[in-house]
From TrEMBL:
<dbReference type="Pfam" id="PF11871">
    <property type="entry name" value="DUF3391"/>
</dbReference>
<dbReference type="InterPro" id="IPR006674">
    <property type="entry name" value="HD_domain"/>
</dbReference>
<feature type="domain" description="HD-GYP">
    <location>
        <begin position="131"/>
        <end position="326"/>
    </location>
</feature>
<dbReference type="InterPro" id="IPR003607">
    <property type="entry name" value="HD/PDEase_dom"/>
</dbReference>
<dbReference type="GO" id="GO:0008081">
    <property type="term" value="F:phosphoric diester hydrolase activity"/>
</dbReference>
<protein>
    <submittedName>
        <fullName>HD family phosphohydrolase</fullName>
    </submittedName>
</protein>
<dbReference type="Pfam" id="PF13487">
    <property type="entry name" value="HD_5"/>
</dbReference>
<dbReference type="InterPro" id="IPR006675">
    <property type="entry name" value="HDIG_dom"/>
</dbReference>
<keyword id="KW-0378">Hydrolase</keyword>
<dbReference type="InterPro" id="IPR037522">
    <property type="entry name" value="HD_GYP_dom"/>
</dbReference>
<dbReference type="InterPro" id="IPR021812">
    <property type="entry name" value="DUF3391"/>
</dbReference>
<feature type="domain" description="HD">
    <location>
        <begin position="153"/>
        <end position="275"/>
    </location>
</feature>
Length: 409
């Protein structure tokens, strides 16, 4: 039987206000709440309730939660504590992201004026990130808040670097290769500094001449990278990140194994980020749509093993996806663990909980609750949209697992 409790989330021991009663233990816990009324939802129930008895059982006059199943209550308290730690982890990650993006902006702006200093700063930054990524810990990938994320090229460069290094880590690359991957990914679009903004920022499709000019950014990037003294394998990424496995990419039309493995990694991540963060946000795909498109219709463009590994790392519903759960709840995926990406952490819409205290539900805690589908943000009811605040830009950063929080943050 499917029921709904008209209580605040903190006033009962269940994971959700709406759920299906599956066993006697749940029923006993429900009865212990002392509620006079419980809303029965017939269209979501497998069985109908029994007819009421002539003499109803008197309900307890004590306040709710007074005699509730203590194990269930203790579990709820642990979950509340984990939600608090999850929120702290996201805030910690956002603070770290602000520092890193500030460093990226500074070194990129000074790249031509103080090249040696900028490249050295980038090298230090990437090596620090690699050290965190390759430490013997689970890594959680978090969705950043729009208030600290941005639309310019610096955020795209960092986004691609973060996701590329994560994918390289999962592919088993040694530290020195992950560092090369990070440097190449961070500077993969450096050639765009020589492309006019009217081409880069155009929201309509490029004409033939504009497209030809745009494609020069790979060779322009190669020239700049050589002047800066970047390593040859990092330069390969800059030149080849638009090459495709079927030989129909640019600038050289390389095919298959002739494309460097590091460039193949960046090609996947760069395409994903471009789909999610188009110049006009209204044209952007959801993270779920981007992965689905890349896998179902563009698979021949990418290294198939690396693409499958990327999807495994990000999950079918990456951070930023608006999702409906199997219990009808609606939420937004806010973080994943690369080792358990199919069971992400989801921020749940619940009008009984203040927005700033919104529940972050860890799907590993309940195997009966799964993601059913992805929802486009523009299809949400206004009150749900305002509560979840879907991101206009998908920006990610990572944080190492701590002992006090679940791995799949």
């Amino acid at each position: 039987m499917y029921v709904h409790l008209e209580l605040k989330w903190l006033d009962h021991p269940f994971s959700f206000n709406s759920f299906k009663i599956r066993d006697q233990k749940q029923l006993d816990t429900l009865l212990s709440l002392g509620l006079r009324d419980v809303i029965y939802v017939p269209e979501k129930s497998d069985v109908a309730p029994l007819p009421p008895k002539e003499s109803p059982v008197p309900m307890a006059e004590s306040s709710p939660m007074l005699e509730v199943d203590q194990l269930a209550l203790a579990d709820k308290k642990r979950r509340i504590a984990r939600v608090s730690k999850e929120r702290e982890a996201i805030q910690r990650c956002e603070k770290k992201f602000v520092g890193v993006i500030s460093s990226v902006k500074n070194l990129m702006r000074n790249l031509m004026a103080r090249p040696e200093e900028s490249i050295q700063a980038a090298d230090v930054l990437i090596k620090e990130m690699v050290e965190s990524l390759l430490a013997d810990r689970n890594i959680a990938v978090h969705l950043m808040n729009d208030k600290i994320a941005g639309e310019d090229v610096y955020y795209h460069s960092l986004n691609v670097a973060v996701l590329a290094m994560m994918l390289g880590r999962e592919a088993g690359l040694p530290p020195e290769e992950v560092s090369l991957l990070g440097m190449g990914a961070l500077f993969h679009d450096v050639g765009k500094s020589r492309i006019p903004d009217k081409v880069l920022l155009k929201t309509e499709p490029l004409n033939h001449a504009e497209r030809a000019l745009y494609r020069l950014h790979c060779h322009m990037g190669e020239e700049i990278a050589k002047q800066l003294g970047l390593a040859p394998r990092a330069i390969d990424i800059i030149v080849q990140h638009h090459e495709t496995m079927n030989g129909k990419g640019y600038p050289q039309g390389l095919q298959g194994g002739k494309i460097s493995r590091l460039a193949r990694i960046v090609a996947i991540v760069n395409a994903y980020d471009n789909y999610c963060n188009r110049t006009n946000p209204n044209d952007s795909l959801t993270p779920h749509e981007a992965l689905a498109l890349m896998y179902s219709r563009e698979r021949e463009l990418y290294d198939s093993k690396l693409l499958k590994l990327f999807i495994k790392c990000m999950g079918v519903y990456p951070p930023g996806s608006i999702v409906q759960l199997s219990n009808e709840a609606v939420g937004m995926v806010v973080s994943i663990n690369a080792k358990q990406a199919l069971s992400p952490s989801v921020l749940i819409y619940d009008p009984t909980v203040p927005k700033e205290e919104a529940i972050i539900y860890d799907l590993t805690e309940d195997p009966d609750i799964t993601i059913v589908e992805s929802i486009r943000p523009n299809l949400l009811l206004r009150e749900i949209y305002d509560y979840l605040s879907p991101r206009k830009r998908m920006t990610y950063y990572f944080d190492e697992r701590t002992d006090g929080a679940k791995a799949n943050r």
